[in-house]
């Protein structure tokens, strides 16, 4: 009887260890909400317009071609997130971490980038017209493509 219980316990530990090692994570199907963990999720073409994603973890997520118009992403982590061709117009990215994020050809007209960390972010072809720059003081001129003018 004792060896049967030990085998059952070992089986449970093994299943748990395999789940952790495989990178299993809940979250990719969680609804949009503050502090949601969508790290590594493939969400190409997602409609997240006007959603509150304050403090969300989007590290390594693929949100290319997504609509984040008016979304709140303040203090969100978007490290190495793919946002190519996404609509981030009027998005609130205040205090967000965008290190190494790909924002090529993103539409960011009117976005708030105050206190955002853009180190290593790729902004090639991104439309930053009327965006509030990371210093919180400068408003990007029209046109501002790929850089805040």
Question: What is the element layout, followed by pairings?
Answer:
Blueprint (H helix, E strand, L loop, with lengths): L1 H20 L128
The total tally of domains equals 1
Under CATH, the topology can be stated as Pectate Lyase C-like
What structural class do the secondary elements suggest?
A: little secondary structure
Largest sheet: none
Shape: globular
The percent of residues in helical segments reads 10-25%
Oligomer: single chain
Low-confidence stretches: 8-24
CATH homolog superfamily: E3 ubiquitin-protein ligase SopA
Q: Which class in CATH terms?
A: Mainly Beta
Strand residue content: under 5%
Can you walk me through this structure?
With 149 residues, the chain is low in regular secondary structure. The chain has a single domain, classed as 3 Solenoid (Pectate Lyase C-like), CATH 2.160.20.80. 13% of the residues lie in helices and 0% in strands. The protein contains 1 helix and no strands. It has one helix at 2-21. The chain is globular and about 40 Å long. Mean pLDDT is 88; it is low at 8-24.
Summarize the structure.
The protein has 149 residues and is mostly loops. Helices cover 13% and strands 0% of the residues.
Task: List descriptors.
single chain; Pectate Lyase C-like; 1 helix; globular
């Amino acid at each position: 009887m004792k060896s049967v219980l030990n085998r059952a316990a070992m089986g449970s530990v093994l299943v748990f260890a395999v789940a952790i090692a495989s990178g299993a994570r809940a979250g990719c199907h969680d609804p949009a909400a503050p502090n949601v963990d969508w790290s590594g999720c493939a969400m190409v073409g997602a409609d997240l317009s006007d959603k509150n994603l304050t403090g969300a973890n989007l590290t390594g997520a693929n949100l290319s071609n997504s609509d984040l118009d008016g979304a709140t992403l303040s203090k969100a982590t978007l490290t190495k997130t793919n946002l190519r061709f996404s609509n981030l117009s009027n998005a609130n990215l205040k205090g967000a971490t965008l290190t190494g994020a790909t924002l090529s050809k993103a539409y960011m007209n009117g976005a708030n980038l105050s206190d955002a960390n853009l180190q290593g972010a790729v902004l090639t072809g991104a439309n930053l017209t009327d965006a509030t720059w990371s210093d919180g003081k400068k408003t990007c001129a029209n046109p501002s493509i790929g850089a805040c003018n």
